[in-house]
Amino acid sequence: MQKFPMTAEGLAKLEDELRHLKSEERPAVIRAIAEAREHGDLSENAEYHAARERQSFIEGRIAELESVVPSVEVIDISKLAGDQVRFGAYVTIIDEESEEEKTYRIVGAHEADTKQGSVSISSPLAKALLGKKVGDTVEVPAPGGARAYEIAKVRFN
């Protein structure tokens, strides 16, 4: 069985989402389907088709979460320290071209969200950063050509 590395916070979020989908979303969509059925002809009932589509999404996400959650390997980052980039690290990088500074946290694939400042350990950026130290420069392949970044800071809290 494939194990997925994840932080404890990431696992808690997935478990909360699964609980929410099963206890609130699933019953709500079942009620919506039953209500839409009462409106008559199902072939032209937009509410019914929308509810069925929503049900399909919910059931798919539940199935996905039920397969991922038992396969999670929680990595305890509370014991990590140092200036070397590893799983769970917050890494501040500086784009050598634009001088723009960004901070990312390296997390498991199922908890990554670039909008929230976290990148998957399997992403090109994380792969380039892993094992490097403050002051190192990394080159990351990108659609518009490779980008160079300098590692400015590494922290684990």
TrEMBL record:
InterPro entries: GreA/GreB_C_sf, TF_GreA/GreB_CS, Tscrpt_elong_fac_GreA, Tscrpt_elong_fac_GreA/B, Tscrpt_elong_fac_GreA/B_C, Tscrpt_elong_fac_GreA/B_fam, Tscrpt_elong_fac_GreA/B_N, Tscrpt_elong_fac_GreA/B_N_sf. One of its GO terms (molecular function) is translation elongation factor activity. Residues 5-74 form the Transcription elongation factor GreA/GreB N-terminal domain. It comes from the Bacteria. Keywords: DNA-binding, Elongation factor, Protein biosynthesis, Transcription, Transcription regulation. Gene3D superfamilies: Transcription elongation factor, GreA/GreB, C-terminal domain, Transcription elongation factor, GreA/GreB, N-terminal domain. The gene is greA. GO terms for biological process: DNA-templated transcription elongation; regulation of DNA-templated transcription elongation. This is Transcription elongation factor GreA. Residues 82-155 form the Transcription elongation factor GreA/GreB C-terminal domain. It holds the Pfam family GreA_GreB. The lineage of its organism: Bacteria, Pseudomonadati, Pseudomonadota, Alphaproteobacteria, Acetobacterales. HAMAP family: GreA_GreB (MF_00105).
